[in-house]
Structure formats: structure tokens, C-alpha cells
Amino acid sequence: MFSKPYAVKCWLKHWQQQQRRQLVTTWTPLATAFNSPPFKRLNLTRNEVGLLGMMELRTHEGFYLMRENASNVAENLIKEATSPERKRKIVQIFDELSDSLCKVADLSEFIRIAHPQAKYMQAAEDACISISSTVEHLNTHKELYSALSRVVETGDIVPTTEVDHHVAKLFLFDFEQSGIHLKEQERQKVVRLNDYILQLGQKFMHGASQPTAFPRGKVPEVIRNYFPSEGDTILVSGLYTSSTNPQAREAAYRVFLYPSEKQEELLSDMIKCRHALARTCGFETYAHRALKASTVEKPEMVTDFIDVLTKELKPRAEKDFRTMENMKRRECGNSDVTVAVWDTPYFTSLMKRNALNASADEFLPYFSLGGCMEGLNNLLRSLYGISLQNTLMEPGESWHNDIYKLSVVHEKEGLLGYIYCDFFERENKPNQDCHFTIRGGKLMSDGSYQLPVVVVMLNLCQARWTGPTLLTPSRVDNLFHEMGHAMHSMLARTEYQHVTGTRCSTDFAEVPSVLMEYFASDPRVLRTFARHFQTHKPMSDSMLQRLCNSKNLFSASETQLQVFYSALDQAYHGDPKNQGDNTTETLRQIQEKHYGLPYVEDTAWQLRFSHLVGYGAKYYSYLISKSIASHIWQTYFEKNPFNREAGEKYRCEVLSHGGGVPSRNLVANFLKCDLTAESLAKSLINEIDANNEKIEELLKT
């Protein structure tokens, strides 16, 4: 006789084997691969192909060879471009020059932050520095600049196309960013300003992330324990938006955002230097400089767009705030309390939890990583006729043993490119979800096509022996978003790598990725893959509807907040005469005009706004991209998210061009309408109104 515990163990083992068999037999090969821990291929021959299939990178020392080769290629191409006997288009030579440098710079930038071995990270960083030095040399090469400038102004010695002219103008603008077209004294000023702006930005970003120290005795005793302390000082490192205690939320807001003289000085100096840089380069303001060659083209259109949205959103956001205020009064048991800026994230999150009628964890079993990848594969096959095929890597090809490689294959055209999936968290890996271009696609001189290679980076938990990696609904959105960037790179078929895929204007680059979020929020799409990883049972229609509708709660007030941020960014980088005595006074003025909740005295939220460094004068890009993606969704995919005809049209008329066609023309032609402030705002307002109707129906049930 076996003991009872032994019998239970046997039964449990048998049950686990059955579950594994079920996973294997009911999921597709792609889903099965991503629902299983990746494994490192056993290398019996000891022959390695090198990182990402590059033979030079079988050891870290290959970076030194690659950067030297790139420099040598660059010198030869400079000679060709400046030669009176040049035979090729100038733009072809410039793109080859750009390609040779980007292949090293983009790869090195990724390996520098992602590789787990210090020697590879250091070699990659050295390569980045070396290529940057080469680029600085090119930016001061007046003979090279003159050759390009003559072509842009008077035409080339060989026949060219509209795309050639557009790309040549982009190269020229990149050149002039360093002031090469200016007199030497002014050029040196541009160099100094660029260097100083870089230093100011780095210091500002560092300060923006530092905790605020505050005397412990000045914090009410009832909430002191909410914050860590050092002796007689408490440290506040965030806004505590998830705290159920309204006093703690308020204290965190007031303390964390308390004005810092050093941060104010850094931000103010950065804004002044940017304006001086723009004026030296011949622009009216820094915003005019930043928006050249963008979708909106001029800051005046951004201002008009913001003003239209401000007017339309005001009554809709007020309704959101009244709802939050009623929630706060019920929760506090006090009919006199009002909603404040520190309350909105908390009550937005609470409302979403209530609408879900379940915790986010209850949705986890329905979103296994493999299931989500299968859902993506089904969607991409329906829209574009392409499939994602898990591909075995060669020894030495991967920088870690938990990487997947996908071949992107079209049903008729064959292989389109490769996506490396670096999906799992690990020590020292950056905690960010992003897309890296390793090699851009381009037409080669022999008529073949240089296939694009990208990396999609996420930070998911590794699969356990008890089951696969499971994603929260927000993680599913992030996966679709980043894969949207990847597909932009895969489906672009541009002649030049300088404008391939995501290498387009900032306010258009997010359109394909934001559009993918619409697919991830549609019950018809989720229904194709949202299945329990053990039972394979599909998510119920009720759960699907609640999940999708919950994503749009309080969308008017959230959009209004983005409008406020965008307006503030434009004000800082616009005409100084329209700014306040300091950055906080400017914030106060903008908040009063564009946001529904008042400014809080003795706070300086902008001094924590690190996006002002990387997205100076371009923060509006999220709203414009959202507006365009919304318009595309409503026009082409809302009725049928699997519409092959619409997918092919979107691929051919939008994705295939990358940045090879001015994005304003691209969007206007595809949507068959002029891009105006009114038309852009209308798509967002229509979406908000439609979602609010759905939400009201949901809350009635």
C-alpha cells in the first residue's frame, strides 16, 4: 500500500504532465515556443556566428574592427561625394554613408545597455564614442556640405525623383543642425550651445528623479509612517498616487513637487539656450526649429490644435471631475471635500478597478505570452498576409539565453526581416519597453533589399515551472504597441535607410504603434487569443467588454492633462515674451487656461518633467499621433479589425514609405482630408464621446 501523501504526489505529477500535454497540443508552435522558457542551443562545433549573426562580433573586440571599417568606408564615400567625377546621385552616397555609420552606432547603442557582460558593454560604448567623433567630423566638413547644398538648390548631375529630393533635404537639415552653414563665429556658438544644452539636460534629468527631503516634524503625525525616513528627515520619492489616504496623497504631492532653486535654474537656462540656438540658426523660436519637417510643420498649428481641444474638452473633463469628486465624498464621508490634482490618478485607477469588477490579476491567466504572440500572428496574417515564425538561433547569435528570434515572412514575398525579442527582466537590464533598430532596410545597388533587423525589449517575468509568463492587460497593450513599431520597420520598403520604418518625424513615428493599441483594445481581436492557459477556455464576453471599456474611463480628463502638458512645452519653447518671470509662473498661466483643476501654491511640477529634455517642443507628438491613429482606426478598421483590403491599403500607402514621403502628405492622402487643427481634434473628441456612451451602458448593467 502506498501512503496517502505519496498517492497525492503521483496524482499531482500526472496532472502536471497532462497540463503540459494540453499546452503542447492546443497551442500553435509559435504560442508553444513563447509559453516555454527559451533555451540555449548546445554548441558542439564551437563555431559561433557572432552577435546578431555578425561575424565580426564573435568576441567583444569585433566592435573595434567594425568602427574602424565604418570610418574607412566613410572617408571613401566623402571622396566620392565631393569628387567632380561623381557618377551616382548625391543622396545615394549620403545614404550609404549614413547606413555604414548607423549599422555600428545603432548596434553599439543597444549592446551598450542590454548586454550582460561588461566587456561587451564597454567595447560597445567605445564604439559609440568613436562613431560620434566621426559624425562630429562630418558635421564640420564644409566641402561635403557644399556638395549636398548645391544639389538641393540647383539639382543633381543625374536624374532624381521627389523622394530623392525629400531625403536630400532631410540630410541637409541634419547637417545644418550643427551650424555648418553659418559664419565661423556663429558656428562655434552653435557648437557651444549644443554642448551646454546637453549638459544642462543631463543635470536636469538627474535632479528630476531625486527624492525630496523634508523635516519629519512638519509632516502630520498620522501620515508620517507612509514615507521612509532618515533621522529627522522624511524622503518622498514619488506622488503616492495609489495611496488610499487623501492626506498622504496631498502631502506627497506638495513635498515631492516643492520648488527647487537648482532645478529652476537648470530648466530656465536650458530654455534660454535653446531659444538662443534657434535664433542663431535663423529660426523664430526653438519650436519652429524642432517642428521643421514634422507632420504639423509649424508650432502655430500645434497651438491651434491645442486651443480647439481645450475648448471641446472643457465640459467633458468637468463631468469627469464631478464624478471623481462624488467618489471622494463617498469615500471620505464628507460632502464638502473637493477633488484636487493629487486625487485624479487614484480615482481613475479606482474607477477602472470597479468597472472591471475584478482585479487585474484575474485577467492574467487569459493572457499567456504565447497566447498573445499567437493573437498578434493571427492579426498580422489577416491584415497583411504575414506570419511570425520562431527561428532557431545559431551559437553566439544571442546576447542572452532568454532571447527569441522571429522571422517575419510574407505569404508571397517571402522573408521581410527579423525581430529579436528580449522580453524578460534580468539584472542591470533597463526597465523600459522599447524598440531598437539594429539595421534599417534599404534598396541595394544590385536590386536586392537589405532586410531590416530590430529588437523589441520588454521587462516580463520569466516563465515558471508551474506555467508560462502571464501578462496584465496593460502589458498586453505595451506588447502590441512595441510590435507596432517593429512592424513599421518590417513593412517599410524604402529606397533609403535614412527614412526606413520609424525613421520619420517624431509626431508620426508613434502612429503605427498607437494604432496597434486600438486592436489590443477591441473585443473581437482579444477574443481570438484571450484563453485560459490551462483550460484553454476563452475569456467570457462580459469580461472582454468590461476590460475594453475600462481602458477608456475618464478619457476626457486624461486627454485634457496631455493637452496641458503639450501647451506648457510649447510655451517654454515659444516666444519668451509670452512666458512668465520664471517657469512656475508660466506653468500657472498655462494650467489656468488649459486644465480643469487649479494650480497648487508652492509646487513646481515642471521641475520633475524630464520629458522636457528629450521631447523639447515635441511633447504634443503623442496627441497628434493618437489623433491620426484614431482617425485611421475609425475610417478603416473600426467596422472590421481583420479587413485585409484595409490592411493592404494601410501597408502600401503608409507603412511602406517610412519617412520617405513627408508625413503630412502621407496622412492627408491616406485619410483623404486636409490635416487641420479642427480635423485632428475632431477624431479624438468623437472617440471620447463614443467611449463615454459605451461606459455609461456598462455602468448601468
From TrEMBL:
Domain of life of the source: Eukaryota
InterPro entries registered for this protein in UniProt: M3A_MIP, MetalloPept_cat_dom_sf, Neurolysin/TOP_dom2, Pept_M3A_M3B, Pept_M3A_M3B_dom
Domain Peptidase M3A/M3B catalytic residue range list: 240-683
Alphabetical GO biological process terms: peptide metabolic process; protein processing involved in protein targeting to mitochondrion
Pfam families hit by this protein: Peptidase_M3
Keyword tRNA processing among UniProt keywords: no
GO cellular component: mitochondrion
Presence of keyword Zinc: yes
Keywords recorded for this protein, A-Z: Hydrolase, Metal-binding, Metalloprotease, Mitochondrion, Protease, Transit peptide, Zinc
Cofactor binding note from Swiss-Prot or TrEMBL: Binds 1 zinc ion.
Location of the protein in the cell: Mitochondrion
Family in the record: Belongs to the peptidase M3 family.
The protein's name in its UniProt record: Peptidase M3A/M3B catalytic domain-containing protein
